[in-house]
Every structure is written in structure tokens, then in C-alpha cells.
Amino acid sequence: MTSHHVDVLIIGAGISGIGTACRLRREHPERTIALIDRRQDIGGTWDLFRYPGIRSDSDMYSMAFEFRPWQQPQLLSDAGSIKEYLHETAVEYGVERLITFGRRVLRADWSSADARWTVAVEDVDSGRIEIWTCGFLATCTGYYNYDSGYLPEFPGSADFRGELVHPQFWPEDLDYAGKQVVVIGSGATAVTVVPAMAPTAGHVTMLQRSPTYMYNVPVRDTLAAALARVLPERAVYRFVKWRWVTFQRITFKACRRWPKVMRWWLLRSVRKQVGDGVDMAHFTPRYNPWDERVCAVSDGDLFAGVADGSISVVTDTIDQFTDSGVRLSSGAELPADVIVTATGLQVQMLGGFELYVDGERRDLHDQLVYKGVLIEGVPNLIWVFGYTNASWTLKVDIAGEYLCRLLSHLDDHGKAVVVARDHGDNLLDESMLDILDSGYARRARAVVPRQGKRDPWRMEMNYKLDVKVLLHDPIADGVLEFRDAPVNADAVA
């Protein structure tokens, strides 16, 4: 059985893992680190999804790392460009040579006696088990199951004679040229894949159970392009990032404070783009803006397709699949050669591995999260989880910087172990994702950590607040407990 030891072991080589590793390489070059990932390439989400049009739904200025600004002109970027950016970043900081691919984490055990983690890892090709040990564990695994997307049970789906595709497992050889395509769903994936398929398909119908709020985002930021001609790149990046982060936060807060006004504003924008001949009932949700995530429409491509007739939007529920399409509850039938089930993600924590502390199983659903980064009662583990109401990477960046601050604090005070303890009975029966009421957030309530009654046990999804809490507030706050290395521990972080 192969064994390895490093100071910090990072699970995941997507945006979260690469960002965290680069932070450590910058600020703690003396520490040994390693990354393990079950896939065969860098990228995580951006390596997994291959459906047409796959792109970011956040602006790239806030999605890129603070320490390596986005330099390309696209505001919303395709998956290939994002993967290339991640690869170049990993190479620049020497992280790419620290990644072991094709490894699935099965279990992680913390030993207080040894002040270290022991992580059981499976080589996915051979089935061989490897043992990794580390002083500090960083989980950068995202929040959904790579093996299984969310797929409701559709009556009669076995009878359908055409192609039935889930976007998470897109066939490389799928031919939809000139064909009738029905895309089930109205979330971020559907809003991306529908206009991407429309120019090639005979016709694309987006079939939704209920409408989603959408807004137009330009592919290029013209102001950034203009500023780049007269200002240094770093100054342009900082200004544009600040502008988009501020816009995101103000829009989110305005939707919560003045939902009727923001609803009118969003729907008015859609009306102007789809034209007067389109029934706005298909774009008018029953809920308030930002009760669910608002979908970004790249350069208005979906709206343009609806306006020119290459895309149809149908709001109805499914009675059953037939051999040639979908029969709706209204009695109407949608003919289809290809049906795409853009029905969402299957939420999963920690990439599915089991977590133990001194032999006791820890289920994240039963735990609080300290400042959005540490799990209550779990020593020497940072949980890197991004924002759901803004760019994911904004939180990843400051979580990685907080880890560096925390490790420096341990060094400065001669400590080896840190653990967050709740002494105030703060645990609520409330999901940390209850800020949203989308389908994946509701499904996640059974698996994600819970909210606390008060700080630092609440996740507010607020970048400005988190910058203060994670980067400026003192590390030692009376909630964190610090311990010396045990005398029998020969290697700790």
C-alpha cells in the first residue's frame, strides 16, 4: 500500500483547489502541499461539462483570481478559455506538478493523538488503495455529484425513440443538425444550451415547468476595453472587478428590499428584447427576484432566438414521454428527435467521502460552519465553498487567503492544531443555502451544513462582510481553540 505525507493536502483541482494551492505557494512556500483529483485534468466543473455553449454565468473579472487578473476581453467566457486560464495559473505557480489525477477519496480520519489526517484514496484505474497523511486538509470539492445529475422520473421515458441526453453527460457524437430539440428546464444550463443549439437544430423548444428571471449580460465589457487603452492592466482589472461586484451586491439587495420594483425592471428588459408578439407569461416567474438565482443571458442570445422564431418557450408540465416526443398536461404534444433534460444537479458534500474525527463519523448536515470556512468540531480542515448569489471564486479567493493567515498564526504561536467550537447552542434547523429557494437548494437541505443563530456561525453570502471577517478580524477570537503538537507527532502542519 502506497503512502504519502504532506503538510497540506488539497482535495480537488478545479477553481477552488487551484486557487487554494496557488495561495499557499505564494504565501507559504516552505510548506509541502499536494492536490488529488478523481478526473484526469485540471478544471473540475469546466472539465466535466461538455454541452454546447458551456460558459461562465458570472463575469470573469470577479470569477478570476485576485492574484492573477483576467486579461481577455470576454465578460462571460467559454469553458475552454476558463480551463486554459486555470492551467496557465497552475503552471505559473508550480501547482500543476503537485496534482495527482485519477484518485477518488474514500475516507478521511483525524487523529488527535497524532495531530494529523489519514486519507484513504483509491486509484480509479487500478482500484489500488493509497494512504495520504497531512497536518491540514483542504476540501475543494464543490457541491454536486459528478457521477449523477438530478433527473426526475418521467413516465414513458423508456418509450422515446429519439436521443435522451442529460447535459452532465453530453455525448461527443450527438448529431442534432436540422432536428427538433426539446430542452426541459429553465435554469442556467437551459438558458445556455438552448441558444447554443438553435443555429444548428431545426427548432429548439425550451419546456419549463415555471419561468425563471433572466437578464442580458454583454459578452464584452466595452468600458473595460476603453480603459485598457489608457490605464495599466492591474488598475483596469481592479476597477472593473469592483464595478461588477458592486453591481451584483446592489442588485441582490435591491431585489430583497424592493422586489416589485426589481421585478418590473427585469421583466421590462426582457420585453424590450423579445418583442411585443411574445407572451410574457413565459418570462414572468411566480416568485420574487433572487428567491432563486437570476440567469445571465449572454448578449441576449436566448431573447434573440425567441424573437426570430428559432426558439420557442412552452410553460407546462409533462404528462408523459411518447415514442416521438413529449405529451403535456394540457394535452398538447411536443415532437422531438432529441430531448435534453436540463433538470439540475444532484447535491453532494465533500465529493462523497466520509469524514471521521477520532473514530467518530461527522456528517456535515449536523454541523455548523465557522465564518463559512471551518467545520465546527473538526480540527485542521478548511472547507472551501463559494458564493451561490455571486461569483463562486470571490469566496474561494478569500477562503484561501484566510487559510494562509491561519497557518501563519499557528506558526507565530507555536501551535499545530486549530478547531472551532460552538459553546452557545447555535445550531438551527435551517440550511446554509436557505438564502435561495431553487430546486437544488431545496434538495441540498438534507446534506449541507446548517445555519447558526448568530455570528460566526452564519453564512451570509456577503463578499464585503466576508472580506472584513476573514481578512481583517483577528484570528484568535475566543471561538477558535489552539493546541500544541502532541509529543509523539513527528510531522504536523
UniProtKB/TrEMBL annotation:
<keyword id="KW-0274">FAD</keyword>
<dbReference type="GO" id="GO:0050661">
    <property type="term" value="F:NADP binding"/>
</dbReference>
<keyword id="KW-0285">Flavoprotein</keyword>
<keyword id="KW-0503">Monooxygenase</keyword>
<dbReference type="InterPro" id="IPR020946">
    <property type="entry name" value="Flavin_mOase-like"/>
</dbReference>
<dbReference type="InterPro" id="IPR036188">
    <property type="entry name" value="FAD/NAD-bd_sf"/>
</dbReference>
<protein>
    <submittedName>
        <fullName>NAD(P)/FAD-dependent oxidoreductase</fullName>
    </submittedName>
</protein>
<dbReference type="GO" id="GO:0004499">
    <property type="term" value="F:N,N-dimethylaniline monooxygenase activity"/>
</dbReference>
<dbReference type="InterPro" id="IPR051820">
    <property type="entry name" value="FAD-binding_MO"/>
</dbReference>
<keyword id="KW-0560">Oxidoreductase</keyword>
<dbReference type="Pfam" id="PF00743">
    <property type="entry name" value="FMO-like"/>
</dbReference>
<dbReference type="GO" id="GO:0050660">
    <property type="term" value="F:flavin adenine dinucleotide binding"/>
</dbReference>
<keyword id="KW-0521">NADP</keyword>
<comment type="similarity">
    <text>Belongs to the FAD-binding monooxygenase family.</text>
</comment>
